[in-house]
């Protein structure tokens, strides 16, 4: 059995149907996320079946929440995940060097990635706020019509 990092570490490995059921996705969705590069199985069995660990399950939950709860596109999710991965690589690189110039470059890259994520999140908030404002406007119009009908009904009842 092969894994992302070599030999299989201790821990439960699940097949695609088990993971999909646990996260409430279809196996096809899990395969699609793998095709897009959003997910890489922890291991492959001797029969070449995809095997997933708890880290993969958590990543799928995160992807699903971003997609379903926050309304992010898969392209936006890919960018957020890449920013996270780059920050993790940068963290390791920072601790692997004592060169102050290289450490400064790594920290500036980290800031740029945080700024990028903040901008993506603010854009999403602005779009959602516009939707809320539009819905509130339609609600106000409907409430005004109700008031007009109630007022005219009260007058015609006299």
Describe this structure in a few short sentences.
The protein has 158 residues and is mostly helical. The protein has helices spanning 16-23, 27-35, 54-69, 74-96, 100-156; strands spanning 2-3, 14-15, 43-44, 50-52.
Q: Which properties best describe this structure?
A:
single chain; four-stranded antiparallel β-sheet; Multidrug-efflux Transporter Regulator, Chain: A, Domain 2; 158 residues; mainly alpha; 5 helices; 6% strand; 2 domains
Protein architecture, described:
By secondary structure, the chain is mainly alpha-helical. It has two domains: 1-69, Multidrug-efflux Transporter Regulator, Chain: A, Domain 2 (Orthogonal Bundle); 72-158. The model is unreliable at 5-9 (pLDDT under 50). Helix content is 72%, strand content 6%. A four-stranded antiparallel β-sheet has the order 1-3-4-2. α1 (16-23) packs across α2 (27-35) and α4 (74-96) packs antiparallel against α5.
Radius of gyration: 25 Å
Largest sheet, described in full?
A: 4 strands, antiparallel
The helix/strand class is mainly alpha
The structural domain count equals: 2
Q: Number of helix segments?
A: 5
N-C termini distance: 85 Å
Secondary-structure element series: EEHHEEHHH
Uncertain segments: 5-9
Please estimate the helix content: over 70%
Mean pLDDT, to the nearest integer, reads: 89
The percentage of residues in β strands lies in: 5-15%
Number of separate strands: 4
């Amino acid at each position: 059995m092969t894994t992302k990092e070599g030999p299989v570490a201790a821990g439960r490995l699940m097949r695609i149907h088990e993971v999909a059921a646990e996260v409430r996705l279809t196996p096809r969705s899990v395969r699609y996320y793998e095709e897009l590069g959003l997910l890489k199985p922890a291991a492959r069995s001797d029969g070449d079946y995809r095997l997933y660990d708890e880290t993969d399950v958590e990543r799928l939950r995160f992807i699903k929440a971003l997609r379903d709860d926050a309304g992010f596109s898969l392209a936006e999710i890919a960018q957020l995940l890449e920013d996270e991965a780059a920050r993790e690589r940068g963290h390791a690189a920072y601790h692997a060097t004592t060169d102050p110039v290289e450490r400064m470059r790594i920290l500036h890259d980290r800031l740029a990635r945080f700024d990028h994520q903040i901008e993506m999140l603010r854009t999403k908030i602005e779009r959602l706020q516009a939707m809320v404002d539009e819905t509130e406007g339609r609600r106000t119009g409907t409430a005004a019509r109700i008031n007009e009908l109630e007022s005219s009904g009260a007058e015609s009842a006299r």
